[in-house]
Amino acid sequence: MLRALLLENIHPDAVEILRDAGIQVESRPGALDEDELIETLADFQILGIRSKTQVTRRVVESLPGLLAVGTFSIGTNQIDLEAAAAHGVAVFNAPFSNTRSVVELAVAEIIALTRRLTVRDSALHQGVWDKTADGSHEVRGRTLGIIGYGNIGSQLSVLAENLGMNVVFFDTSEKLALGNARRVETLDELLAVSDAVTIHVDGRAGNAGLFGEDLFARMKPGAIFLNLSRGFVVDVDALRTHILSGHLSGAAVDVFPTEPKKRGDHFDSPLRGLDNVILTPHVGGSTEEAQQNIGQFVAKKLRDYLFTGSTMLSVNLPNLQLEHTGVGRIALLHRNVPGVLAAVNQVFADHGANIEAQMLATRGELGYVVTDISDVTQRGASAKLMEMATTVRLRIRDAFDRPEFPPGPAAG
């Protein structure tokens, strides 16, 4: 029986979906460090994590039986994707499922900061009736600058425009502007006109230190700043300096360069205690609706990969959308070099296998060929395929969708 280990309080719907598929599931509330992960995963084929557990190259190389990793979040920077691909470990994430939750938090914070609600709230809690309009503004008619116009940035653009804001955005890729949003060619152009600047970029290494002292200095005086993307993209010391100087009127930060491992741990930051600064503990996507959607989405992707070989939306393997056909299936992940498909089909021909369907996809250095044949367990082709120098991982399903034969550790 296939076994799955789910860490970091993954939604119960994920457990139910995997168990309904016949997978044995064990859930644990916290993250595991590298040594703990290697020791614990020895008897598991599937791993589910969120943002705290690090799946390093050493972890992948130490676990030849690991078939798939599901990260129940948007980001995948906590996983060595290259190492996982090289060892035939499929990785799935949830690129869309918590988008709305992050966008709604951003909208709420833009309004709260622009109206200085945190300052008014703090004064009343201290017993001071500070009724004043000083520094308080409507968001209508103000300009929102969005850095990163992907799933989150583009949806935020639509909601902000519905509030009456003007929207400009900057992205290094060509993106379709929604509504009346306007693309700008440089960050300088965005910073010069934006009353609020919000970052929604991914976790690639090239984004580290993206927003530092130089960019804060170029922001419009009195503007507000939001980071709900990745902690390492922003220089928080520089942000503190510009809040204290009065150059910026407020900020909201949900992600930090260093974050505690679990709920209840001590948290420290240069941004603590500053007026009109909202600090939240990485909860942009942490609504009950988002966590349920993520749990369902990633669990279904893992299930489909294990039982049909479908890799659609895998972040590190060639993508094929596959359905169960009722015949045997051989899924071969291989090095993407000329002649592999011809060699595979020659093996099938030599063993008298009748190919009923075949699909091939490639991605960088990897290829993925899935072949449907009758009586797959009665053929001798699998041993020959495992012996091929180009084979990374071989997985086999019989016509009754029973557990794979053999377990399929990576070869070579």
From TrEMBL:
Record's keyword terms, sorted: Amino-acid biosynthesis, NAD, Oxidoreductase, Serine biosynthesis
GO BP: L-serine biosynthetic process
Domain of life the protein comes from: Bacteria
Any one Gene Ontology molecular-function term assigned to this protein's record: phosphoglycerate dehydrogenase activity
SUPFAM superfamilies reported for this sequence: ACT-like (SSF55021), Formate/glycerate dehydrogenase catalytic domain-like (SSF52283), NAD(P)-binding Rossmann-fold domains (SSF51735)
Pfam family, one: 2-Hacid_dh
Top-rank EC class of the record's enzyme: oxidoreductase
EC number: 1.1.1.399, 1.1.1.95
Transmembrane feature ranges: none
Domain ACT: residue ranges: 329-404
Reactions catalysed, as given in the entry: (R)-2-hydroxyglutarate + NAD(+) = 2-oxoglutarate + NADH + H(+); (2R)-3-phosphoglycerate + NAD(+) = 3-phosphooxypyruvate + NADH + H(+)
Listed InterPro entries: ACT-like_dom_sf, ACT_dom, AHAS_small-like_ACT, D-2-hydroxyacid_DH, D-isomer_2_OHA_DH_cat_dom, D-isomer_DH_CS, D-isomer_DH_CS1, D-isomer_DH_NAD-bd
Functional pathway: Amino-acid biosynthesis; L-serine biosynthesis; L-serine from 3-phospho-D-glycerate: step 1/3
Family, per entry: Belongs to the D-isomer specific 2-hydroxyacid dehydrogenase family.
UniProt function note: Catalyzes the reversible oxidation of 3-phospho-D-glycerate to 3-phosphonooxypyruvate, the first step of the phosphorylated L-serine biosynthesis pathway. Also catalyzes the reversible oxidation of 2-hydroxyglutarate to 2-oxoglutarate.
Listed name of the protein: D-3-phosphoglycerate dehydrogenase
